[in-house]
Amino acid sequence: MAAQAPSGELSNLSVTESEGSKPKPNSSVATNGNLNRDSDDSDEDAEGPAAAAAATGAAKKKKKRKPKKKKSPVQQSDPPRVPLSQLFPNKQYPKGEEVEYVNENRYRTTDEEKRHLDNLNSDFLTDYRHGAEAHRQVRQWAQKNIKPGQTLTEIANGIEDAVRALVGHQGLEEGDALIAGMGFPTGLSINHCAAHYTPNAGDKMVLQQDDVMKVDFGVHVNGRIVDSAFTLAFNPRYDNLLEAVKAATNEGVKQAGIDARLGEIGGAIQEVMESYEVEIDGTTYPIKPIKNLNGHTILPYSIHGTKSVPIVKTNDQTKMEEGDVFAIETFGTTGKGVVHEEGQVSHYAKRRDAPNVDLRISSAKSLLKVIDKNFGTLPFCRRYLDRLGQEKYLLGLNNLVQSGIVEDYPPLVDRKGSYTAQFEHTILIRPTVKEVISRGDDY
């Protein structure tokens, strides 16, 4: 999820223009149904036909065994529906990309005290790796299956159904979505729309062959949110745009670490992104970072923390610290490099610092109870309220926004006719290493 930079900070920004096997035979029965014998031939003759008949009967009885129960699946289904708890029954979920610290922080990799601190965070890491593996499996399925001609509603529902199946919580019972599920609604922002668009009920928008679509969604387990995004384009003319933003995100991930200064990370991201250009329909465009969109820290059950990671150089001397969780995300554009709010709102979240307001509209009161019991401060969208059976809630929802209890996140757009791209990873600033928790073979 994009963090929008406050307009008052823009003056401090610097932008440079530019298979199965058969069961083994029982050890006491030969393959032809006769008993295996350790005695000599004279013993065999003494037993006679009765022994043979007994042997045959035993063999037949053996064959009537009930079939073994099927083992749990060892591979994911298509679409993804096998819970990760079955694929990883010991809860040993895959690690993300672990990157050792360098220079004055190199000691942390082997320091016993830091290793002890890491071991104390076992539940934290298990939850994050659980969510990250769900994100990887779902997005890799999505990348293979999303095609032009699909509606955005079909795409969003496909992603979200898969996430809920993999974490084992459908979110339809009260409080279930707070245990695990969607950590951020599926953003499907197209072309000049950079962020915060997901279809509301009745949306008929269809993905087109020449569209550039940002796919941004979060997965949480016990409030630990993995926020990650990628961009899809089906026309190769956009390749440089996507490559620029992916490279810039990777540079931000590379620069991140304990004591790294946020403004300097922004400068490194900017330098990489602005080294690219893209030609579209005979016109060459410099690729610009969208300077009023930032990365951000992630807190438990809250997608936006207190620190922002700019994607252009700034004077921000704030440092990354041990224990921080960051979403490093970058946005590139062929447009102006600045976005503004425009269009129908779909994304919402209850504020962590929501005031205690005496609500006078009954629909607002009842809706707030639904939000508290099902989402807390996790972001949600209008489709999630529809899914819970809520009706005629817009008046109450708008009242909660106006009262400062719920924050709305309108779509963020650049100049019409421009194209934007986004890539994002979640990183854990652990005591011993930096873990790019959402890293996968795809990006």
UniProtKB/TrEMBL annotation:
State the Pfam families in the record.
Answer: Peptidase_M24
Bias (Polar residues): 9-36
Locate the Peptidase M24 domain: which residues? 128-344
Where a divalent metal cation 1 is bound, by residue?
A: D216, D227, E424
Q: InterPro entries of this UniProt entry?
A: Creatinase/aminopeptidase-like (IPR036005), Met_Aminopeptidase_Type2 (IPR050247), Pept_M24 (IPR000994), Pept_M24_MAP (IPR001714), Pept_M24A_MAP2 (IPR002468), Pept_M24A_MAP2_BS (IPR018349), WH-like_DNA-bd_sf (IPR036388), WH_DNA-bd_sf (IPR036390)
Quote the record's binding site residues for substrate. H196, H304
Query: Where do the segments described as Disordered lie?
Result: 1-97
Q: Keyword annotations for this protein?
A: Aminopeptidase, Cytoplasm, Hydrolase, Metal-binding, Protease
Does the record carry Metal-binding as a key word?
yes
Return the EC number: 3.4.11.18
| GO MF annotation list | initiator methionyl aminopeptidase activity; metal ion binding; metalloaminopeptidase activity
Per UniProt, the cofactor note for this protein states: Binds 2 divalent metal cations per subunit. Has a high-affinity and a low affinity metal-binding site. The true nature of the physiological cofactor is under debate. The enzyme is active with cobalt, zinc, manganese or divalent iron ions. Most likely, methionine aminopeptidases function as mononuclear Fe(2+)-metalloproteases under physiological conditions, and the catalytically relevant metal-binding site has been assigned to the histidine-containing high-affinity site.
Catalytic activity reads: Release of N-terminal amino acids, preferentially methionine, from peptides and arylamides
Q: Which family does it belong to?
A: Belongs to the peptidase M24A family. Methionine aminopeptidase eukaryotic type 2 subfamily.
Q: What is this protein called?
A: Methionine aminopeptidase 2
What does UniProt list as this organism's lineage? Eukaryota, Fungi, Dikarya, Ascomycota, Pezizomycotina
